[in-house]
Amino acid sequence: MKKALVIIDVQKDFCEGGVLPASDTFSLIEPLNDAINWCVKNDILCVFTRDWHPVNHASFIEFGGTWKPHCVQGSEGAEFAEGLFIPGHSLIIDIETDSNKLNTTYSAFENTNLESKLDRLGIKEIAAAGIATDYCVRATVLDALKYGFKCTVLTDMVRAIDVMEIDSIEALGEMEDTGAKLLTSEEWMNVS
Ligand code: VGL
Ligand code: ZN
């Protein structure tokens, strides 16, 4: 079955040193790059999503939201993390491009046409990695399942913000209960 690796929001602002860092992000880049290289060799599409807010986005504290300003379109913080390998034939998906529209779920499928893009490519199955387990990864995986994609969460390649310590554990449980498979990247590459 044709599949894609979806690498969610691995951007400077969500990494150590950024304004809204998930924990332990430095250890994410090397295994991610290994999996990305493996995908290139095996002709599996890599999809990179970016949290991509206008400067006055409604999710930012000063505009009525809850987050410190982060991943502002075109800013350094919105760039992909240092050292992340982006193969030439990747699909880049920007999330949250409209200041008035609030993506209430954090999903990479909301207002992005990701579903139809994957559909047109005949992709029926995705594996999800990236940041944050408890926000964008969770919402994207739940939407993928809702749209009928088979879905695996790569447990060693997701990182959490964990506003509450238990958030990422609950998110992983919820994704599994909804139908996602939880595998390490090594297990996923072995069965793929
Ligand atoms: C995200 C918090 C705010 C995410 C985006 O990509 O998980 N989290 N905006
Ligand atoms: Zn955001």
What does this structure look like?
Helix content is 29%, strand content 20%. It has 192 residues and is α/β, with parallel strands linked by helices. The chain has one domain: Rossmann fold (3-Layer(aba) Sandwich). The chain has a six-stranded parallel beta sheet with strand order 3-2-1-4-5-6, sandwiched between helices. Helix 3 runs parallel beside helix 4 (167-178). The chain is globular and about 45 Å long. The termini are close together. It binds pyrazine-2-carboxylic acid and zinc ion. Pyrazine-2-carboxylic acid binds next to helix 3.
Helix/strand-derived category reads: alpha/beta
In the sheet with the most strands, the strands line up as 3-2-1-4-5-6
Order of helices and strands: EHEEHEHEHEH
Could you tell me the CATH topology label. Answer: Rossmann fold
User: Superfamily at the CATH H level?
Assistant: Isochorismatase-like
Rg is 15 Å
Small molecules bound: pyrazine-2-carboxylic acid, zinc ion
What is the overall pLDDT average? 95
| First-last Cα distance | 9 Å
Q: Any guess at the CATH architecture?
A: 3-Layer(aba) Sandwich
Strands, count: 6
Write the layout of secondary structure elements.
Elements: E1 3-8, H1 26-41, E2 45-51, E3 91-95, H2 114-120, E4 125-131, H3 133-146, E5 150-159, H4 167-178, E6 181-183, H5 185-191
Parallel strand pairs: 1-2, 1-4, 2-3, 4-5, 5-6
This protein binds pyrazine-2-carboxylic acid and zinc ion.
